[in-house]
Each structure stands twice: as C-alpha cells, then as structure tokens.
Amino acid sequence: MSPARQARLGRPAVEETHTNSTGSTSRRVWQLAWPTILSNLLLTTIQFSHIKILSGLGTSSVAAVTTGHRVFFLVQAMMMGLSVATTAIVARNWGAGNRPGAEMATWTSMALCVALAALLTIPLLIFPHGVAASFGLDAETTHRAGEFIFWYAIFCVFLSINMILSTALRATGDVITPLWFLFASVVLNVLLAYWLTYGSFGLPRMGIAGTALGGGLAAGITAVLFTLRWWRGKFTLGAVKRWHIDPTITRQIIQIGTPAIIEQGFIQFAMLAFFLILGQYGTEAYAAYGIGISVVSFSLVVAFGFGIATATLVGQQLGAGDPKSAMAAGWRGLRMAIAAMVFFSVLLAIYAEELAGFMIEDPEAVRLTVIFIYLIALSQPVMAIEITLAAALRGAGDTRFPLVNTIIGMIAGRLIPAVIFVVLDMSIYWMFATTLFDFGIKAVLIVHRYRAGHWLYLKLSTQR
C-alpha cells in the first residue's frame, strides 16, 4: 500500500479510533497555542504602536513607517525560513528523546541565522534611502522611510537571536519563556520609541528616526538578557558552548530552510510589488492599507499561533514514530484556528470604524481603512486553512509544497489581478479584495496536499 493511500486511510482511522484522545489533543494544541498567540499579538502591537506614535506627525510619517516595516518584514521573513527548519529539526529530536541533537540544532540554527541577518543588513545600512525610493512615494515620505530603515537595520542581528531562541524553546514545548522575554521587549520598544520620537525625559526629539532607534534598542537589550539566561543553562535547551556546528544538521537546516526562505522572500518581494501597484491609488489608500493590515493582523496572528502549535506537535509526534497522531494534530489545530479567527474577525468588523478613527485622523484614510477591514475579515476562514495546514507540513519538514503554493496564490490571486485592476482603472476596493483571491487559491491546494499524506513519511536524522 502506498504512503499516500495509507495517509488517506489514516485520517478517518484517527478520528474513529482516537476519539478518547481528542480532548487531550485539543488541550495540547491550546497549551502550545495560547502563549504563541499572545506572543504574535505582542509582535503585532509593535507596528500598531509605531503607527499610532507617528500618526501625530501626519499621514506622510504613517506611510513612511508602513514602508519601513514592510522592508523589515522581508528581512525577518528570510530569517523565518531558518526558524521553520529549526522548529522541524528541534521538535523531531525532542520527540525522539534526543536532547543533545535538539541543542546542537539550536546552536547551528543560531549561527546560520546571525550570519544571514548580517548579510541582509548590509544594503539597508548602505542604501536606506535607495531602498525606500523603490516604493515610488513622494520625496518627504521617502526620506522619512529611509531614516527609519537605517536606524532599525543596525539591530537586525539581535532580532535574529531572539527569533531562533524563541523558536527552539517553543519546539520543545516551552512556550512561556519566549512570551515573557517578548513582553519585556515590546514594553521597552513602545516606551523607548515614544520617548525618542518626541524627546521625553530629556532625550533628543528624533522624529521617525527615534521610533526606529527605540525599537532597535529594545530588541538589543532583550537579546542580550535572553542569551545570558540561555548560556547559563536556565532553559530546557542548553547552549553547546563550543565553536562547532554539526555538518549533518547544517545540511538539514539548509535543505528544509531554503524553500522556506525562498517562500518568505517571495512573499515579501511580491508584497513589495503589490505596494508599488497600490501606490498608484495615492497616499491615503497606501496608508489605509498599512493601517488595515496592522489592525486586522490582531486576528490573523491567531492562525499563526495555532499554526506554530500544530507544527510543534506534528514534529514531535513524527519524532516519536506516531504519524496518525501527527495527522490528527493538524486537523484539530485547523478546526480550532478557524473557530478562533472567525470570532476575532467578527469583533474587528464590528469595531472597524472605531479602530480606524483611533489610528489616524485623515477622513479619507479612515473611510478606506474601514472598507479594507470589512473585506479582509471575509478572508479570515480561508487564511486559517492555509496558514495552519502549511505550518503542519513545515513542521514535518515539507517546505517545498508551501513554496509552490505561495507562488501560485500570489501570482494568480494577487499580482495579476492587481495589475488588471490598475490598467482598467477599477476601484481600490478590488485591490483590497485580492487578499481573498490569494488565500482562497492557496487554501484549496493545501488541503489537497495535506490529505494526500506524503509529508508523513519524510525522514529527518535524530542521531545523537
């Protein structure tokens, strides 16, 4: 019997013969998901807070910080490719009872991610205004975006350290420690960003540069404290403490991480292209999209939280040699993600006008933001499907299909329609609706792949 056939038969068997474990699976998903959801919500508040802080300086500053964050989403997304590999390998080793292997995987991932962050930072430090100019905004907005990019880029290496340590700990099931460090980082981020933007407590008034510097300093301080605790053996995973990375694990990280890096890079470059197209509709529409994404992401991160929890459980169950439980964990995580995202998206839709008015005062930007929130709220269930099941595949080490899926969805569902809408001079509302087209295509394809079950039989080394 083929692996695909086994998997297809395995799903109903899980649901019928494992009914007694459904409750425990749900509890385990929730135990892993809720701190991750809170962590993602905290991360979301950074862009949200930066936009709010700078809204007092005008629409141009809001558009500039939206641009700056879009650039760093690209950098962070590339690093997230390595974190995907970290989750798969650490969780697989942890599920197999191989703590030394999990620690070496963490150490190796850390070294690779720091190197990648340093490499990606170089052009942002040398050509910050050139990068900002690629968005086609007006001169004032471009200059401000360049300032933000330069100051934030200085601290990218610290962001990579925080990311890998948090990812590795979550892969072992420790989701609380990363949450506490992230909470401290976000509080510092908001306070320092505000103080340096407006010159509070005797600090210089730096405007948008102060927002970036404050956020970067917060990440740096947190990374130092996080690393010290890890180095002193205070976590479930210890530091290897020697100048050595395992060649086998390095190859695995590259093999698993490369498609994920390409996928994340493609997403961000595609979104950069989308923002360039969107810029044709004016600064108000551009700012509204940035604000809308920031606001709606509070519900979107719920799916990412369940996705990370599902990826962890899938990796651990496969490491323990239990593919049926791995399959069941994915379906259970998906159902919980859909329910949670529908709930939060309804809340966001109800309070769309209040949220938009809180974020910015420009009447036209507020109107467009409200419409965007309504449209993207309709996309939430299909977003939950794509995000959760793609995370389950990545947790098993299958990062190639999510890459192909993303390329198809982005090109066929977002970029091509966006170009058509601009050429035909169609309403900005159609541009907002591309999110539904994009994720709808990806959801259909990812469900088919998950059901096929080929991912259950991928082999990863768990040697000590």
TrEMBL record:
GO terms for molecular function: antiporter activity; xenobiotic transmembrane transporter activity. Keywords: Antiport, Cell membrane, Ion transport, Membrane, Transmembrane, Transmembrane helix, Transport. Residues 1-22 are annotated as: Disordered. This is Multidrug-efflux transporter. The chain crosses the membrane at residues 32-51, 71-92, 104-128, 148-165, 177-196, 208-231, 261-281, 287-314, 334-351, 371-391, 403-422, 428-447. It is a multi-pass membrane protein. It comes from the Bacteria. It is found in: Cell inner membrane. CDD domains: MATE_NorM_like. One of its GO terms (biological process) is monoatomic ion transport. InterPro entries: MATE_fam, MATE_MdtK, MdtK-like. One of its GO terms (cellular component) is plasma membrane. Its main location: membrane. The lineage of its organism: Bacteria, Pseudomonadati, Pseudomonadota, Gammaproteobacteria, Cellvibrionales. Signal peptide: none annotated.
